[in-house]
């Protein structure tokens, strides 16, 4: 990953994270605000309900109070007390309840038994314990009905006026769908009433008595204004919690799984005088408005965030380019310097650190070029000196015999002609030989200076090895005591090479190997493929080379031979380098030496 | 002498005036309102005006000839021959023949007849039974065996009730109003009122309102409202015990165990039913027949014994039971009260309004108490309850044994003997109730009739 990409990534991530953090913070804050509003609205309704409940309680109490003071009730009480006969009043409660618009009404006689019951006329003669609550505040009571069901009601007990509190009226209003429908409800609000006949027996907070049997939630018992409450089963957790704790419980209910259909619900336990929970009122406020607002705000936040991120990416692109371009130029320049082009320069802009770096780079490359020039000059001088030394050395060796021979010829002039002739012949022979030697030396230097450019063609290493072998197999005979071994792999070993130059290089190595084994040995010439390379190896079993010799072996004019020019291996190295190959030597003292040429394998 | 003659003449004139004042007048329209339809309901007020039986009950409960003038039994009451009244015609003019009577009777009981075979022999109708039928003449006075031309005596279609009764169907303008006109050729003499308008399906409250406003002449007074009617100073005619309020207990299913049935019998509080629900107008009874009819009804204990009910029930498990009732008002209340009583004894009972195809575990029923003959009355009662019982021996001891054995099965629990009553408007005269509580409207006349 380039610097520009890294910068782009870092900038983008930073800005995106910042935008996301801001958006998340906004959303969370908005959600909290809406939830707070929901809770306040629910709390408002709950307080409204409690006021309405108190109002209804007062209405029920007032209705029963009016009945207790009515002429019909007083006449009933009088007749009942005087005659003790309750039978004439069997249906009286129904009439009175109808007149007073009460859902429940029972007349209880002096013996505490029901004289007349509006809700269950057949219940006459049975005891009604609630009659003991006369003059007390209205209370909740679950009333049994003839069809076996029960109904929750808000009741009040009053003694009939003039009966010396012997005859009592127990009137009540049913807490049912009608009651729910009369409650003040905001738009989108759902109201439900959950009642269970066994509920009071299950939890009694006042006494602390708790039934061992857990209440089984029955969704059909959760009634709404229009019948059963939609998604009644989803209120189970709230209702169970309200039943268990006896306290108001809040929670989110989601009947459909869609957030916009979710409701902020409150379960309000309704208790009787003893503290037992008689029913649970459910008040559920739709969260659709809040969810829609949240979704709207979220969409805006996402849009802003997306725009911000896009802007951030564009800005990051620009910034990254601005910051990375000089560094990229520096990197490219450094690469060119590494590639040998020391004349490269970068632009210097501004006064920042990057500009300082560019200036330093330019200064460094200038110095490097200067140092290289000086090094070249030094090396050139050194080379000339070495060349002069070698030339002097090479030329001095034949010159000395030439001088001696000439001086001998001069002295031989004094000798008799026969001796002179013999000396002359010997001297001329020597002179010819030395002159030939001089010519040979000069020829070698000439060859080294005239190394031709390789003419590449496709050849096979096998053919190259075979040609070298055929050339030198004759020379290496039994007299030399050298065994010439050739090891060539069967696989094709194609090369892009100049066959003549490689032949000369290999031959030179073979001759060196022969020279290294004056007492005989084994010369091994091998070729084999190694990955995308072709390895040519010339190994001998001579005395080997010291590490120092190995290090300087390819230096021009360095030789270990008595009459070597030191150019042979330099020429071999030059040929190998011209073929994009490498040459190395492996040797240890007394263990022979092996020259290894690695050449690139030609494409198929 | 003159003085004597003058006194005699004066007395004669007073007597003539008095007779003229009390003599029934022909004409006028009698307006009757009833809660039922008058045909399928238990009183069958309309049906008794349209159709006659071979026999009938008199006001004193005695059996009287109707379409049959006489009857004889042979072969130990296995064979009965009823001679038809001559010259009787149906409302459409068709003569009454033995064949038509046989056809009507065969349709009436639909194969479930007290007899094995019935056939016409000349102008007589002959009944043959595999078992003795000692009370057949009394059974034939029941509304089930009223003779109609189309054989629709069961009353499923009032418009086709063509019989030989004192009135014939004039119009059936609406389901709530049946108009009857006097049958001029009635074999028992023309009825006094020219027309009778029977408004059906009227609530008791509406009937009483119409009576007080002069829009009705005869209205019903249920037993539970008798005291209220008397308090309101209505003219009320009350029959003797005409119906038996009884609890029918299924002998199969959940109550197949006789101990459970006996427990139920002990748990029911009859006094609450009588004193409160029926406002002391019903006679508490544990016997099928009233005390005044048999003289032994007191031998059957009617008191509630809750402890014994618990004891009889023991630890026997009983699934929830249903108690069916017909109608509303007192019957519904009574059913709910009985359900409450039974809950005290450990039974889970739910009172439900009875519908035709239902077979509840318990059913509150009103059974007919017809006739002055105890054996016949018991057979009629049992026959109404679907029991094919023949009470051949009419001696009190035999009747007691038969009733005791029947009640020991605890499949029918007598509760109250109830009367029937009607309130009359000021125009109505000579209104009487037959022994079964059915109003004899054919004998009634109107004060202001021309």
Protein chains sharing the most extensive interface: A-B, 14 and 16 residues
CA radius of gyration of chain B is: 24 Å
- Order of strands, main sheet of chain B, comes to 8-9-10-1-11-19-12
CATH fold node name of the largest domain in chain B: Dipeptide-binding Protein, domain 3
Low-pLDDT sequence parts of chain B? 151-159
Silhouette of chain A: rod-shaped
- The share of residues in extended strands of chain B comes to 15-25%
Structural class of the secondary elements of chain B? alpha+beta
Main sheet record of chain A: 6 strands, antiparallel
Top-tier CATH class of the largest domain in chain B: Alpha Beta
Please explain how this structure is put together.
The complex is a heterodimer of chains A (604) and B (450). In chain A, helix 1 packs antiparallel against helix 7. Chain A has 13 helices and 18 strands. In chain A, the strands form four sheets. A six-stranded antiparallel β-sheet of chain A has the order 8-7-6-11-10-9. Chain A has a five-stranded antiparallel β-sheet with strand order 2-1-5-4-3. Chain A has a five-stranded mixed β-sheet with strand order 13-15-16-18-17. Chain A is α+β, with helices and mostly antiparallel strands. Among the domains of chain A are: 111 residues, Beta-Lactamase (2-Layer Sandwich); 73 residues; 144 residues, 2-Layer Sandwich (Heat Shock Protein 90), CATH 3.30.565.10. With 450 residues, chain B is of the alpha+beta class. Chain B has three domains: 121 residues, Periplasmic binding protein-like II (D-Maltodextrin-Binding Protein, domain 2, 3-Layer(aba) Sandwich); 94 residues, Dipeptide-binding Protein, Domain 1 (Dipeptide-binding Protein, domain 1, Alpha-Beta Complex), CATH 3.90.76; 176 residues, Roll (Dipeptide-binding Protein, domain 3), CATH 3.10.105.10. Chain B contains 13 helices and 21 strands. In chain B, the strands form five sheets. Chain B has a seven-stranded mixed β-sheet.
